[in-house]
Amino acid sequence: MNPLNILSVNLSENKGTIKKPVGTIQLGIRGVDGDAHAGPWNRQVSLLGIESISKTEAEAKRKIAYGEFAENITTSGMELWKAHPLDRFTSGEIEMEVTQIGKECHGSSCAIFREVGNCVMPKEGIFARVLSPGTLSPGDTLEYHPKMFRILVITLSDRATAGEYEDLSGARLQQLLNDFFKSHNLHHFVHYSLIPDDPHKLEELLHQAKEELIDIVITTGGTGIGPRDFTPDIVKPLLYKEIPGIMDMIRMKYGQLKPNALISRSVAGVMGKSLIFTLPGSVKAVNEYVTEIFPSLLHMIYMLHGLDTH
Description:
It contains ten helices and 17 strands. By secondary structure, the chain is α+β, with helices and mostly antiparallel strands. The protein has two domains: 4-145, PK beta-barrel domain-like (M1 Pyruvate Kinase, Domain 3), CATH 2.40.33.20; 148-304, Molybdenum Cofactor Biosythetic Enzyme, Chain A, CATH 3.40.980. The strands form three sheets. Strands 1-6-5-9-8-7-11 form a seven-stranded mixed β-barrel. Strands 13-12-14-17-16-15 form a six-stranded mixed sheet, with helices on both faces.
């Protein structure tokens, strides 16, 4: 898409008050120097598009000045609220990462709400943290870079690798992942790898995924107690943190009706900057497991990046 135009840069000395346009702002590691919202938190820099301001002007039947909604940066060229956490904006050496879309509205206790009569920031303003500092002025531009979620699906199966049957569980997992990320309008790429039941090959792929900062790794197969079932044994030593609740709940939920489900040794956890889940090697199990994993998947990703999206 075309670059966003910066219409105004704005500062305020106190939180909950209107910001005033200034000639330039300096972005540092704590946010906008001299601004009340600067600090070691996720909402260091606030951005609001003229596209959102114009709608409020029509409702208020008056012109709204830049900074009246307490935004640090007023832009044109994109409906900013359509961005997502972990997307990025750049301008020269400056890099900002989106941390939050909208915020809690404090209503009549907020000076902005009292003066303007409404506030669009809680719904359509966005917030970012500074990754790389620099100076911004009106007339500068911002490039928008949507986060590309990278996902690795690994199927472990001697027979599927040998061509004795088709890997249906891996194909189903890819379909479900594509549907999930499309439903959230998130950019993503799913890479697929079919390997035999080879612990050394699996470990090699996992180390590579960790080095390449793959966001999500999901394996299918090798979670039982058979002689060739070793997936959890390879994964566990690589985990920085285990997430036991997910798999425990899945085993208990489905094991109540089908006790064989309790035999699964599936694990979930954090491997570097990657989330990893080990699933049994059947289409039915894939359907059941992702049904439980997907509702908290984005929250897990954001937590792993230090974002609180409650």
